Amino acid sequence: MKTYDETVAAIHALPRLAKTGGHERILALLHALGDPQHDRYVHVTGTNGKGSTASGIAHIMEASGLKVGLYTSPFIMRFNERIMIDHQPIPDADLVTAAATTDAAMAKLRETDPDFGVNEFEYITALAFWYFHQQQVDLAVIEVGIGGDTDSTNVITPEVSVITSVGLDHAKLLGHTIKSVATHKAGIIKPQRPVVTAALPADAMAAVKKRVAETGSQWLVAGQDFGTSRAALDGWGQRFDYQAGTFHLSQVFVPLVGNYQVQNAALAIAASRVAAKAMNWPLQPQEIRRGLAKNTWPARMEKLSDDPLIVIDGGHNPQGIAAMLSAVKQVFNDERVTLIVGVLADKDVKTIIAELEATTARLWLVPVPDNPRAEALADYPDAGKLRTFASWQEALAAHLDEFPDEPVVLMGSLYLASAVRQTLLGSQR
């Protein structure tokens, strides 16, 4: 049997993309693993916010006494974070066992089809579904990788589907319009199964409405069927009121900043209540409160240090950047902030840099470390007039030397945020 390091290396050695976007490969692998995709799930997609929303749902259902799986991507500190039960990453030994079981299923399939293979995400998804089934979780919350309809996770029939937001990202796969992106994301809505969504742009709402009509699904919309009020900062977190018909919760706390995190928390509450009803599970108001109070999420306006004040954020598309800037304004008001920015070249770099340049923040550019997709310093828009550094470490050192009493946010890519977090926190979290 492989070691843990050999297991992770073998997973990462699998191809990233496949020639077709169908589900035939993962369905074949899942069938060989006993069809664990037929268990109880919640399915979450969105251009931004799907990770913290999925985590919020899992925390709420855990607080109610259920054993809950959580599947997300990418990881920030260690690979195991992608597959969790009750917010505990899969143990190394269990990952090795799960991979060995998945490998054995692959070998069996190759007896009749020597060319059978799956890509990396299909493999990890199948492994996660098998592990959740083997561990007998009561419910698993599944975050979509990219899009929705053709995503490898879209082989489940969830208790409820969730769409957190729709914006332009992954244009090569999802298209260049809001309607196209929303159509892909709406593909996770299943016949006669409810869907909970944020208040989306008009073109996105139209795409969801079309899918809901096709599937006969119940549709709950933020701002119409449920909503929040009286949101306010409380330390490095927020309190808000939640209401849905006659159901009301006052002064709910979530330890995340940014107005969008209140909306994500509202989606988590709504989806959890729908899932609990479908499972005939008596979810209590105090369990919702207790779950959300634990819902931290790494690299989303995450404070790593108070003195000096260092924050990281993984916003990597125009919508994510706008949300980050709103959160910066919320927590720092008019205080001058240094933004140390590293972006991947396949993102909308021009729009991202333009949005950042339009602020009063001090904008410094760095490469995303150890990533072949990183935007080269010389290729950044306005690189000639903006301050550049060979590494984020050099930029952070310059900030601490020149502006030690001012906050700094390292942002633009989850890969940059991950590198900063691993370096500054090490094994602390």
From TrEMBL:
This enzyme's EC code(s): 6.3.2.17
ATP-binding among keywords: yes
UniProt xrefs under InterPro entries: Folylpolyglutamate_synth, Folylpolyglutamate_synth_CS, Mur-like_cat_sf, Mur_ligase_C, Mur_ligase_C_dom_sf, Mur_ligase_cen
Reaction equation(s) it catalyzes: (6S)-5,6,7,8-tetrahydrofolyl-(gamma-L-Glu)(n) + L-glutamate + ATP = (6S)-5,6,7,8-tetrahydrofolyl-(gamma-L-Glu)(n+1) + ADP + phosphate + H(+)
Pfam families tied to this protein: Mur_ligase_C, Mur_ligase_M
Similarity-based family: Belongs to the folylpolyglutamate synthase family.
Full protein name: tetrahydrofolate synthase
Species assigned in the record: Lacticaseibacillus hegangensis
